[in-house]
């Protein structure tokens, strides 16, 4: 998801998915939430939100609520957003030169989740496969690797960025590498090229952890086998060509359940199982796995019905190995993370815009938490690996 304003967000997004296969006995290895906040505060005039100020315009996690998630809700997976223009200031460009202050702040969040709490952390450069101007995400910024845009960072620079980042987490087995958030409206062949460059960079460091590779159309599951944008090839026609020498790369999928899959509406009308059917078949055909790293819904009865159906579907189809709901995070306040303006966020202990309980209570506890408890007994509480049934 992208946000646009400091604390006031507007979300949009798209996603998609597909399929119905019924393979019983699947295992969800990673189950949890997005921690959104590290990308906040950039909306408006280009450059004005950069670099931003930690704790004022952006922040990654609230340690106390991560404690709640792990200790009380028993989740084991956090997708932690960050902004590439903050990690690699535009003045020095995308690559291996990091802003060490921003990196240390991010690393502290990742280490809290993984080392202190023992959960998994998915690194999420929340950039739509664009770099140099996040002021009007998801549309601003040059497409990485676009050789017709003189201001664009190159695919080689993207590989340098990932090589450096992976080298810094190479010895942390609880880290998962998400190549980029929601590429869209670009050549699908270029997404393949950029994904492959990231994989090559990550593996060159000796890092063996799971990598998540996104496709086109905001990496939507429902549209995985469809043309997206202005006639961009379906992700399904290119992404099976990814090569990971360790065979440890899964497809990163986003899927919202409202009418246009944008995650902006309060009402859910798009059933996950049927919309994911084609994706599921494609994953089976190419022997690939997927993680649904964003999905969401409001506390409207239609969403409270369709959200658990989606999660149940993922746990019943063994091509899916994990999911994270959108979104918790330290800076949402009374704002909604998705799905209309009144639900609030999934951050524990907050209220929504009307002063009532936020989505943590009315969505997560109301229906999502139940799927963890019912669908799946954690088979290994000490190392916390397995959810699912
Ligand atoms: C690096 O990040 C810190 C923290 O946001 C910020 O204060 C500083 O100005 C940044 N430096 C550069 C060169 O962007
Ligand atoms: C990865 O998968 C390919 C194709 O199935 C196989 O030939 C190769 O040995 C696998 N590599 C590893 C490291 O498992």
From TrEMBL:
InterPro entries: GH, Glyco_hydro_5. The chain crosses the membrane at residues 9-33. Gene3D superfamilies: Glycosidases. Keywords: Glycosidase, Hydrolase, Membrane, Transmembrane, Transmembrane helix. It catalyses: Endohydrolysis of (1->4)-beta-D-glucosidic linkages in cellulose, lichenin and cereal beta-D-glucans. The keyword Membrane applies. GO terms for molecular function: cellulase activity. GO terms for biological process: glucan catabolic process. It comes from the Eukaryota. It holds the Pfam family Cellulase. Its EC number is 3.2.1.4. Residues 33-328 form the Glycoside hydrolase family domain. Belongs to the glycosyl hydrolase 5 (cellulase A) family. This is cellulase.
């Amino acid at each position: 998801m992208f946000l646009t304003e400091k604390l006031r967000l507007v979300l949009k997004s798209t996603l998609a998915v597909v399929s119905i296969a019924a393979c019983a006995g699947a295992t969800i290895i990673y189950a949890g939430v997005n921690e959104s906040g590290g990308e906040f505060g950039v909306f408006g005039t280009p450059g004005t939100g950069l670099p931003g100020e930690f704790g004022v315009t952006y922040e990654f996690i609230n340690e106390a609520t991560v404690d709640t998630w792990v200790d009380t809700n028993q989740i084991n997976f956090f997708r932690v957003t960050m902004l590439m223009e903050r990690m690699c200031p535009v003045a020095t460009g995308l690559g291996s030169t990091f802003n060490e202050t921003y990196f240390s702040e991010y690393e502290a969040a990742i280490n809290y989740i993984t080392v202190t709490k023992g959960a998994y952390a998915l690194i999420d450069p929340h950039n739509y496969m664009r770099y140099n101007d996040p002021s009007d995400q998801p549309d601003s910024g040059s497409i990485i690797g676009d050789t017709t845009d003189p201001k664009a960072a190159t695919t080689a620079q993207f590989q340098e960025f990932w090589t450096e980042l992976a080298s810094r987490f190479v010895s942390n087995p609880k880290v998962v590498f998400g190549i980029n958030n929601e590429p869209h409206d670009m050549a699908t062949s270029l997404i393949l090229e950029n994904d492959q460059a990231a994989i090559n960079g990550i593996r060159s460091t000796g890092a063996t952890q799971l990598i998540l590779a996104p496709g086109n159309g905001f990496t939507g599951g429902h549209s995985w086998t469809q043309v997206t944008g202005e006639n961009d090839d379906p992700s399904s026609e290119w992404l099976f060509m990814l090569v990971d020498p360790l065979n440890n790369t899964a497809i990163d999928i986003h899927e919202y359940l409202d009418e246009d899959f944008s995650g902006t509406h309060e009402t859910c009308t798009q059933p996950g199982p049927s919309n994911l059917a084609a994706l599921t078949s494609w994953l089976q055909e190419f022997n690939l796995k997927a993680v649904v790293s964003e999905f969401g819904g409001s506390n409207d009865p239609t969403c409270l019905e369709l959200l658990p159906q989606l999660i149940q579907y993922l746990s019943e189809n063994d091509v899916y190995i994990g999911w994270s709901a959108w979104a918790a995070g330290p800076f949402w306040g009374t704002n909604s993370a998705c799905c209309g303006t009144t639900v609030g966020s999934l951050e524990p202990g907050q209220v929504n815009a009307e002063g009532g309980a936020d989505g943590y209570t009315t969505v997560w506890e109301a229906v999502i938490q139940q799927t963890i408890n019912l669908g799946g007994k954690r088979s290994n509480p000490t190392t916390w690996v397995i959810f699912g049934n």
